[in-house]
Amino acid sequence: MNFIIRIVGLVRKILDKYDPIISKCNHDNVFAIAGQSAFFIILSAVPLSMFIVSLFQNLNIPIELVEQGLSGIFAPKMIDQITDYLDAAYQSAMGISFVSLIVTLWSASQGIHAITNGLNRVYDAYENRNWLFLRIRAMIYTVILFAIILALLIFLVLGDTISNFLKPFLDGLPDFVTVIFNLRYLIIFVSLIILLAMLYRNFPNMKRKQRKEYGIKSQLPGAFMCTISWFVLSLVISIYVDDFNGFSIYGGLTRLAVIMIWIYFCMVILMICAEINYVYHNKFKCFHLRNVVKRICKKKKA
């Protein structure tokens, strides 16, 4: 009985300590925002993936190379479904025109637009910008994010191949190239943190004074927690997919459901970490390098 009372008391202390972030999440209805963002991201994935397949086909990139790269990212039971989709898409892919590019980007930018609306609510930012401007802005951010993520995936999956290709041309720096590609997981991890911090900083429609208060540095703790949580979530989903035998029974429907759940929880984590940045940004200032140096100088003077 005493053990149960202690557990209840511990839970109450934790809830009281983190009551501001819990209240803010409930007030902003974070799970509904994440669901909306995940829904539009899933809708955006279809036209964007078709455009990517058409791009690869027009660049004469073999489908086998694409499938080999994806096999290093997704679980074995999911890669079969993705491979079937790629084979069908390669056979039916059409040429790329300017009109199809604009239509694809317009459709794919729905996900970015939904995330922007969600972060506006998290940071209590009022959206008064022109609708057309927001659409064009979302399209530009879609291209930038796609290019960065594609570069990181290529760096991750084809790192050894690129390293072996560059070594003959960099006779004086073979060790440097080896070190860079051996540290590619750390580089991708840091790059993702910086990317998320910039997303938290630039997506909401904050006023100039608010932008100074919520700078890149104050967004790094939430970006770090979001990156760690995404890696853990992806690992858990991967283990579940590998060990769950129900995939052979329900087929592609289960794989689709798992992908949707994964995207949804990624958006939940993204929004909760944004809430953490917003609620605790004053406390995070103590970790800034300038403030750390000031505290050290004060201790030495004392």
Quick recap of the structure?
83% of the residues lie in helices and 0% in strands.
Strand-helix topology:
Layout: H1 2-17, H2 19-28, H3 30-58, H4 63-71, H5 76-92, H6 98-122, H7 131-157, H8 159-166, H9 174-182, H10 184-202, H11 208-213, H12 216-243, H13 247-250, H14 252-279, H15 281-284, H16 289-301
Shape descriptor: globular
Specify the number of helices: 16
Roughly how much helix do the residues carry, as a percent range?
over 70%
Distance between the termini: 50 Å
Architecture overview:
- The mean pLDDT is 74.
- Helix 2 crosses helix 14.
- The chain has 16 helices and no strands.
- The chain has one domain (2-301).
- By secondary structure, the protein is mainly alpha-helical.
- It has helices spanning 2-17, 19-28, 30-58, 63-71, 76-92, 98-122, 131-157, 159-166, 174-182, 184-202, 208-213, 216-243, 247-250, 252-279, 281-284, 289-301.
- 83% of the residues lie in helices and 0% in strands.
- 20% of the residues are buried.
- The longest helix is centred in the N-terminal third of the chain and has 29 residues, at 30-58.
